[in-house]
């Protein structure tokens, strides 16, 4: 956790060091999350849950080079549909986070249409959703902090609209259980659109 937090702080400080000639844009980002949880358990099975994300973002890019940073503060709904192996019934678990991703982004192409690749860390703080679920006679609890890595690809149209696909690889254990050794990490895809000003 300390390493991820330190890395996020270093990347945020890099915003300050970006040359004055860089392009700075603000915007709004939103999209659909298709999330699940990677479990270290043979007894429980995890399926996808659909949620959403929305929030403000900031982006800075060095002209001609096409390399820059973007950061956002996203209200993000994640979760998992969990059931016992071989069981027909399941429990849908949704948790709301305030996610703060900071990505290194590389844009390339012609001015009107550019493709981009992005990657970087994120931290998340639980702000809502159910805290405790009853599964197989056990209480599974959502933890208040999460962290991981983002990997994204997308396109930018006329320098103001971005459409992308992102994969979030959770690195922290996000759920606890007294009965099972879950080692449950958030994982998932998101399809996003952003409008930049």
Which architecture does the CATH hierarchy give at level 2? Answer: Beta Barrel
Shape verdict: elongated
* Number of distinct beta strands: 13
Order of helices and strands: HEEEEEEEEEEEEE
Mean pLDDT: 87
What profile does the largest beta sheet have? 10 strands, antiparallel
Kindly state the percentage of residues in helix. Answer: under 10%
Q: Could you tell me the strand content as a percent range?
A: over 45%
Q: Helical region count?
A: 1
Structural class: mainly beta
The CATH topology corresponds to: Porin
List segments where confidence is low: pLDDT < 50 over at least 5 consecutive residues.
Answer: none
Cα gyration radius (Å): 18 Å
How many separate domains?
1
Distance between the termini: 34 Å
The top level CATH class name: Mainly Beta
Brief overview, please?
By secondary structure, this protein is mainly beta.
Give the secondary structure arrangement, pairings included.
Elements: H1 2-17, E1 23-38, E2 44-47, E3 49-61, E4 67-72, E5 74-84, E6 91-109, E7 113-129, E8 132-135, E9 138-142, E10 145-157, E11 161-170, E12 175-177, E13 185-196
Antiparallel strand pairs: 1-3, 1-13, 2-5, 3-4, 3-5, 4-6, 5-6, 6-7, 7-10, 8-9, 9-12, 10-11, 11-13
């Amino acid at each position: 956790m300390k390493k991820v937090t330190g890395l996020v702080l270093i990347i945020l400080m890099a915003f300050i060091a970006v040359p004055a000639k860089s392009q700075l844009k603000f915007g709004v980002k939103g999209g659909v999350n298709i999330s699940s949880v990677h479990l270290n358990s043979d007894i429980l099975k995890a399926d996808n849950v659909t949620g959403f994300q929305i929030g403000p973002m900031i982006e800075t890019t060095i002209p001609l080079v096409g390399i820059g940073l973007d950061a956002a503060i996203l209200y993000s709904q994640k979760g998992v549909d969990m059931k016992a192996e071989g069981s027909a019934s399941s429990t849908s678990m949704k948790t709301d986070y305030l996610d703060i991703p900071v990505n290194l982004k590389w844009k390339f192409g012609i001015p009107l249409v550019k493709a981009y690749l992005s990657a970087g860390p994120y931290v998340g703080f639980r702000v809502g959703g159910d805290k405790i679920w009853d599964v197989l006679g056990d209480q599974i609890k959502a933890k208040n902090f999460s962290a991981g890595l983002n990997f994204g690809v997308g396109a930018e149209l006329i320098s103001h609209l971005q459409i992308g696909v992102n994969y979030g690889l959770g690195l922290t254990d996000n759920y606890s259980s007294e009965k099972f050794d879950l080692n449950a990490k958030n994982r998932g895809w998101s399809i996003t659109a952003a409008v930049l000003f």
